[in-house]
């Protein structure tokens, strides 16, 4: 498949989706939205892919919605075409326009290499794990554009950084350094700029080659579902999942490679 606004490649079990409008700091467009969603489908359906990395080309991760598109919206030209859900069988919460990352059954790592703002920050927050280059800068942007907390960020952000921190970041739309982002829990880890993608890919390859893809898929579903469950419901879900795991080939391999002291050969079954 050919792409206009993104790049897509697979290496060592890792699919890398790169937002590719570096001259515009990878500002988000309708075309980019369609292509990212298509790439997530390709990665989901490819048995050779076990982990997905989302990053940006050049100096930015994503500077938010393209300003030309925002001007069109301000002129009453907002697109109204329906967006088909990524997975029609997923819970309703994960079938909205930008909330489909949790329904992708493989881990998505956000590799935030530079400016991350507005809609770009929303997309980053929907990834499962976030790594930031030491040069990355974050801002919600919305209040400085006369907008509101869009696309579920009012739900996502407090769960990551707490209510008061989320209110600060949303109300002020101030710039947040990579170091502060790590301190408040917005990102998992900050990495040196010069070795950023090497370190991200090393982690992604570790996931792709050393742990069970079946386990990751089930745990991803459990983690996201648990955000809407009581403790007892989460326990009951886990009990059912554990019974199925005991019957899986990956469980047998997980025990065998440990006992035999050899690298694992997980199949995802």
Summarize the structure.
The chain is an alpha/beta fold and 269 residues long. 42% of the residues lie in helices and 16% in strands.
How are the elements arranged and paired?
Elements: E1 6-11, E2 14-19, H1 30-45, E3 51-56, E4 60-62, H2 67-74, E5 108-112, E6 115-117, H3 119-126, E7 129-133, E8 137-139, H4 153-161, H5 163-172, E9 176-177, H6 178-184, E10 189-191, H7 196-210, H8 213-226, H9 231-246, H10 249-259
Parallel strand pairs: 2-3, 3-5, 4-6, 5-7, 6-8, 7-10
Antiparallel strand pairs: 1-2, 8-9
Main beta-sheet strand count, sense and barrel state: 6 strands, mixed
The average pLDDT is 93
Could you please say which CATH topology of the largest domain applies here? 2-enoyl-CoA Hydratase, Chain A, domain 1
The CATH class of the largest domain? Alpha Beta
If strands are numbered along the chain, what order do they take across the biggest sheet? Answer: 1-2-3-5-7-10
Helical stretch tally: 10
Poorly predicted runs: none
């Amino acid at each position: 498949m050919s792409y206009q606004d993104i790049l897509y490649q697979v290496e060592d079990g890792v699919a890398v989706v790169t937002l590719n409008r570096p001259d515009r700091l990878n500002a988000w467009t309708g075309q980019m939205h369609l292509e990212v969603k298509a790439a997530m489908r390709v990665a989901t359906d490819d048995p050779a892919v076990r982990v997905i990395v989302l990053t940006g080309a050049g100096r930015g991760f994503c500077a938010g919605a393209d300003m030309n598109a925002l001007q069109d919206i301000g002129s009453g030209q907002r697109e109204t075409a329906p967006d088909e859900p990524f997975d029609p069988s997923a819970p309703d919460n994960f079938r909205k326009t930008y909330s489909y990352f949790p329904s992708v059954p493989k881990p998505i790592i956000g590799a935030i290499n530079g400016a991350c703002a507005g809609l770009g920050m929303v997309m980053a927050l929907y990834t499962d794990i976030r790594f930031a280059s030491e040069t990355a800068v974050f801002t919600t942007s919305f209040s400085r554009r006369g907008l509101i907390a869009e696309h579920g960020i009012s739900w996502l952000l407090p769960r990551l950084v707490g209510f008061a921190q989320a209110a600060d970041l949303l109300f002020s739309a101030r710039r947040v350094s990579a170091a502060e982002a790590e301190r408040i829990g917005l990102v998992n880890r900050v990495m040196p700029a010069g070795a950023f993608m090497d370190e991200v890919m090393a982690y992604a390859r570790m996931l792709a080659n050393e742990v069970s893809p079946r386990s990751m898929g089930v745990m991803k579903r459990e983690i996201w579902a648990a955000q809407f469950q009581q403790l007892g419901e989460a326990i009951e879900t886990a009990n059912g999942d554990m019974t199925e795991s005991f019957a899986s080939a990956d469980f047998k391999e997980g025990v065998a490679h440990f006992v035999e002291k050899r690298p694992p050969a997980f199949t995802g079954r």
